[in-house]
Amino acid sequence: MLTKETVIEHIKSLPDNFSLDELMEKLLFLYKLETALEQSKGKQTTSHEAVKEQFNKWLQ
Q1: Do 1 and 36 meet the contact criterion of CB atoms below 8 Å apart?
Q2: Residue 53 has pLDDT above 90, yes or no
Q3: Distance between CA 28 and CA 57 in Å, rounded?
Q4: How many domains does one find in the chain?
Q5: Is residue 51's pLDDT more than 90?
Q6: What 8-state DSSP symbol labels residue 13?
Q7: What are φ and ψ of residue 53, in 5° steps?
Q8: Is the pLDDT of residue 43 over 90?
Q9: Which 8-state DSSP code applies to residue 17?
Q10: Could you tell me where the DSSP H helices lie in 1-60?
Q11: Can you tell me the distance from the alpha carbon of 27 to that of 59, in angstroms, rounded to the nearest whole number?
Q12: What pLDDT digit, counting tens, does each position of 16-42 carry?
């Protein structure tokens, strides 16, 4: 989960003039990154080999 401090820090890194789209894009990226890190820590990932096997099944 994102913290208020993290969001504020990233907002401060934006240029003085930015669009709402740019802000939303940055916030969405931060959210997805944080979610992925939490999943990785919780061992909620799929190995590269398992992905390759699944991909090969889809191609058949």
Answers
A1: no
A2: yes
A3: 32
A4: 1
A5: yes
A6: T
A7: -65, -45
A8: no
A9: S
A10: 4-12, 20-41, 48-59
A11: 35
A12: 999 999 999 999 999 999 999 999 888
Per the structure, the complete domain to which residue 34 belongs is given by 4-59
Q: Which two tokens stand for residue 13?
A: 């890194």
CA distance 19 to 37: 27
The two tokens of residue 5 are 């401090």
CA–CA gap between residue 44 and residue 32 (Å, rounded):
14
**Residue 51 tokens, joined:** 């992905």
Q: State the greatest distance between any 2 C-alpha atoms of the chain, in Å, as a whole number.
A: 52
Q: Are 39 and 45 in contact (CB under 8 A)?
A: yes
Nearest of 56, 7, 5 to residue 28 by alpha carbon: 7
What are the tokens at 10? 């990233």
